[in-house]
Design goal:
alpha+beta; extended; single chain; 5-stranded antiparallel sheet
């Protein structure tokens, strides 16, 4: 059984280890050791312990060590923008104090092996803080999953760089040295902030335009452009112009603009990336093991898709997000939608990367084993584009979960060469062979319009892409054979799947076990649902249920007119499942679509929006037809005719006269309809009166008429 970093285990009756729940903090494959940390609800401080891999594996087989669950506190499962500023500051302060310790590859093992290890005391002295404070921060960090939000509440460091000094009236700098006595040397002027701004503006306008330009040329152009008035006035008055000297211009340009920036800006971005930038070697030089870095990128697929509800409606070209492990070339995540490249679609790809793929494939009718696509972990670093992840949401949501987010600069696709090449592979092996494909080129006049040949829905395209990804992960890549000796030592083919699995088995990876509920809570968009008498309502047609002992009681309360709103997380790929915070001080619970809403099961968000838009349009188009108008007129005519005929009937004096004999008239009407001359009379009515008639007669005899009774006048006197 695999022992992932950050996994939680229940330990019972193991020699040298106290019974309890432990978290696996780190693997040390070179010395065959595993570091564990006991999880307790008490506030006492704990120290990590060390156990050998062999002993841990044997105890797992014997059943004395089993998987356990340690829930994350509810206050850590909160969107970044909902955390108060004071708490965020406190969190970052604690993390900064221990970052140097936890970043050291040897600190954890040394601290766990040596009870008298003084690394923390030395670090506390260096940081100028208390040792107990560092111990408590480390305990919180290890206890709640080795991530930044484990240290909530937090404060950021305040303060900043000092303000620049302002020059006075005395000229700064050395004067011009002359050997002729009595020669008048102009003193010059001090460089002001306005002059510095003009220096930068002149360099942008004249110095960063194509080929390299000399400083003297830029300086002359600057004087003519920004100091023209001073030059003209000085010439008229016969004095030296008060303008910055050339030496000051060169000094401040080199000080304000780094040398590498001058080289970069004096050529085109493409030329710099190809010919002038520093060489960095292979793409995998800085990713030693799987999980060191995931690359994420998006592209518009070269194929048009149609609506699942109506296949004659072309939706356009979908956007595919692909997440690839840089070291093993393993495609660890996939997301296809009609969304444009954005953070909203990008985080769906991250959710897919950190979640189990067996359930994801089952959504599209593909049955796989967990070992066929064993990717449900959080990487050590994520490399992505500026377009989706430069926004504040990505910094607030993804960074606390992943730990480190790398943003590729513009026009530098070669920095994400691994994921870019995956798109090329998918296009050649699948996309360019589908109906409705554009084959990666613009439409040329006279060619067939690919939109007219589109036949695949978004769900069908997802299914084909999943099969292509599974084929890719099992394909042979010769470059993998030279990256690690484990493949040849184990006699395995150089495929991404084999590379991934052998490093997982040998505990040589940088992957962190992901809690899917926590991933959904952190990354998916926050929305609201309503608790109703029928269930948890998302919209008029979609109701969800949850396996909770109080769920039925909540429906009773909601039916009494006390419905309430709850926070939820939705997955755009699958509408069958949502995650809802059922109570304020709880995490998120998984809710499934009810049987009455089964038509929307496993639907993509785009299909749900299309359905709602279709309802709006049909409701707007709903107008009375000609037949409906004709039926309305006929109804009015029938009613008016009935009223006219009723006026011709002889008037009746009272209501009793109008309603008397209704049973006899009803019987006669039935007789006319049946075409009979006489209706049979019940035998009971011919012989003896019924029990009901006798009771009515007796009651009538006991009735006393108050109007006809005689008054008793004997007692009036």
């Amino acid at each position: 059984m695999q022992v992932e970093k950050n996994s939680v285990w229940q330990v019972l009756q193991v020699d040298g280890v106290e019974d309890g729940v432990y978290r696996a903090l780190g693997h040390y494959a070179d010395v065959h050791l595993l570091v564990l940390f006991r999880l307790q609800d008490t506030s006492g401080l704990q120290r990590p312990i060390v156990i050998t891999h062999s002993q841990f594996s044997e105890e797992i087989k014997s059943g004395q060590i089993t998987h356990a669950d340690f829930p994350t506190p509810f206050y850590q499962l909160v969107a970044e923008e909902l955390i108060s500023a004071s708490h965020r500051k406190k969190r970052d302060e604690r993390f900064d104090q221990i970052q140097q310790l936890i970043s050291s590859p040897t600190f954890l093992l040394e601290f766990a092996q040596s009870p008298r290890c003084n690394l923390v005391a030395q670090h506390a002295k260096q940081k100028g803080t208390y040792v107990q404070g560092l111990y408590r921060s480390l305990n919180l960090y290890w206890k709640y999953g080795q991530e930044r939000n484990a240290l909530l509440p937090a404060y950021k460091y305040s303060g900043g760089a000092g303000k620049p000094r302002i020059a006075g009236s005395v000229k700064r700098g050395s004067p011009i040295q002359v050997f002729t006595p009595g020669m008048d040397v102009p003193l010059g002027v001090n460089t002001t902030e306005d002059d510095k701004a003009k220096f930068l503006k002149a360099m942008k306008r004249y110095g960063f335009k194509g080929p390299k330009v000399t400083f003297r040329r830029v300086y002359d152009q600057m004087l003519k452009e920004f100091y023209a008035g001073e030059l003209i006035c000085a010439e008229k008055e016969g004095r030296e112009p008060r303008v910055p000297e050339y030496r000051a211009f060169v000094y401040w340009v080199k000080k304000l603009i780094p040398k590498q920036e001058l080289i970069r800006r004096q050529t085109s971005p493409g030329d710099f990336a190809r010919n002038r930038r520093g060489l960095r070697g292979s793409a995998t030089d800085h990713t030693e093991v799987p999980g060191s870095c995931f690359e994420l990128d998006a592209t518009v697929l070269d194929v048009h898709v149609v609506s699942e509800f109506r296949r004659n409606y072309v939706l356009g070209r979908p956007t595919v997000y692909c997440v690839v492990d840089k070291e093993s070339r393993m495609i660890v995540g996939l997301h296809v939608s009609m969304e444009y490249a954005s953070w909203r679609a990008g985080r769906q790809a991250l959710v897919n990367s950190f979640s189990s793929k067996k359930e994801y494939c089952a959504m599209y009718g593909i049955e796989i084993e967990e070992a066929e696509w064993p990717c449900h972990h959080i990487p050590q670093r994520l490399l992505c584009d500026r377009g989706e992840f430069i926004c504040n949401d990505a910094e607030k949501l993804a960074v606390p979960l992943i730990g480190h987010l790398s943003i590729a600069p513009p026009y530098r696709a070669e920095l994400k060469g691994i994921v870019e090449h995956r798109f090329n592979i998918l296009n050649k092996q699948l996309v360019h062979e589908l109906m409705g494909t554009t084959k990666g080129r613009h439409y040329i006049r006279g060619d067939k319009d690919p939109r007219m040949e589109a036949t695949l829905t978004l769900k069908e395209l997802n299914k084909l892409l999943i099969d292509a990804v599974l084929d890719h992960n099992s394909a042979i890549f010769e470059s993998l054979s030279g990256q690690s000796t484990l493949l040849i030592e184990s006699g395995l083919a150089p495929t991404p799947l084999n590379y991934w699995n052998i490093h997982m088995q040998k505990h040589r990876h940088a992957l962190t076990k992901a809690n899917e509920a926590e991933v959904h809570a952190r990354l998916l968009p926050a929305e609201t649902v309503t608790m109703t008498s029928k269930g948890i309502r998302r919209n008029d047609e979609m109701l969800y249920e949850v396996k909770h002992p109080d769920f039925e009681d909540w429906k009773v309360i909601a039916r009494a007119g006390r419905s309430w709103r709850m926070e939820a997380r939705f997955n755009q790929d699958n509408s069958s499942i949502i995650y809802v915070r059922l109570q304020e001080q709880e995490g998120f619970s998984r809710c499934e679509l009810m049987l009455g809403s089964a038509n929307f099961g496993q639907r993509h968000q785009a299909d749900i929006f299309h359905f709602e838009d279709w309802k709006k349009m049909e409701k707007k188009r709903a107008k009375p037809s000609a037949k409906s108008v004709e039926r309305h007129k006929r109804r009015k005519s029938v009613v008016k005719n009935a009223q006219d005929e009723a006026k011709k009937a002889p008037p009746l004096s009272s209501k009793a006269e109008r309603t008397r004999g209704m049973k006899e008239r009803r019987r006669e009407e039935i007789q006319l309809v049946r075409g009979q001359s006489k209706l049979p009379v019940p035998e009971q009515s011919l012989e003896t009166p019924s029990h009901v008639d006798q009771w009515a007669e007796e009651r009538q005899q006991n009735v006393i008429s108050l109007l006809k009774r005689k008054k008793d006048r004997s007692n009036e006197d």
